[in-house]
Structures are given as structure tokens and as C-alpha cells.
Specification:
Blueprint lengths: L11 H15 L3 E2 H7 L6 H13 L3 E6 L2 E6 L15 H30 L3 H26 L8 H35 L4 H7 L10
Antiparallel strand pairs: 1-3, 2-3
Helix pairs in contact: 1-3, 2-3, 4-6, 5-6
InterPro entries: Hop2_WH_dom, WH-like_DNA-bd_sf
Pfam family, one: WHD_TBPIP
Organism: Kazachstania africana (strain ATCC 22294 / BCRC 22015 / CBS 2517 / CECT 1963 / NBRC 1671 / NRRL Y-8276) (Yeast)
Amino acid sequence: MPPKRKVVQVKGDEAEDIIEQYLKTQFKPFAINDIVQNLHNKVSKSVTLKALDSLVASEKIMSRTFGKVIIYSCKDIELAEPIDDGDYSLEKLRQLQDEVMELDRDNSNIIDVINDTIKLPPNDELIESVTTLQNKIEDDKIKLKDLQANDDLKENSEVKEILELEAITEKKIIRRKKILKELMNIIKDQIRPKNLLEYLEDIGCEGMETCF
């Protein structure tokens, strides 16, 4: 077994430089025994103690006493640039608070629209209803043309009934188209499908876009 190499111990300024660089590199506190051990006895304990006292006196490092133990560490490193607290200023926080409140209002509006939509008939029933009303209007128009050939048009009660029914039907169609348009806007704004027609087909609402 080869003999162990004898560790060459350093002293004086060289010892101070080694210890100071070690503390700066580790950037955490050590007791004297830890420093000697971590430097692998490159600096003896007595030399380490003198070097530490010298470094503390020259304010290159700092020390704190805890009972009978003295802890040594490098001095706090100053930041090269001051911390910019602009993102944490009171003005910035108020701005963020306003944005949050605005988002809450938008969210409330969306919830109101969704709740109103839930109360309505299903999409397939709305589409079927609109289609039925449109067909009825076409039938009524045909009947109206036939009746317009009659000289007694103003006195014909059936014509009046058809005209009233047509007006009511038109209002219902407009209302249902408005509802469908709101549903389409919700889908576009909240779900944002890549292909709207394919999405409507996937959820069983194909043909919905033809109601506008």
C-alpha cells in the first residue's frame, strides 16, 4: 500500500485568500471546524482561526456568535442593479384590481346569457320551429295571393286572420333568430371552434347557420 501523501498546509495571506474564496463560493455560514474539514486540512485549525480573525477585522467576511460557537460567512453581495418594484407598486395593483373587476363583470354577463339560454328549448327544437314557421309563412303567402284576386278582400275575415297570423309569425321568427344568433356568438367567443360548421354538426345542430 503506497504511503499517504502529506498535505502541504498554507499560511498567512495565502490561507486568507483560500478561506475568503471558499466562503464566497459556498455563500453560506460555517463554523471553524467545518472550514478546516472542508478544505481537507489544507489550512491548519490555528492558522484558520488567525485568518478568520484577520478577515473579520478587515471586514472582508462577517461573524456571528451563538453561545460558544462562532459562525463565519461572506458578506452580503450587493445587487449590481436596484430592484425595480414597478410591477408591485400600489398603482399597478390598483390597475390589476380594476382588470379583475372588469373580467368579473364580463363573466357575470356571460353567465346571464347562458342561464337565459338554458331556459329556452333545445337547439334542434328551435331550428325545427323556425323551419315550420317559415314554411307556414310561404303557405300563407300563397293563400293570400289567391285571396287578393277577390274583390271583397277587405271584407274577407280569412284574409285578416292570415295577415294577423303572418305578423305574429314574423315576430316569432325574428325572436328565434336573435336567440340563435346569441348562441352562435357564445360558441364563437367562448368555444372558438376551428371549423364552425363541423362543430355544429358534431353537437347535432347542423343547419343552424341557415337560420340567419
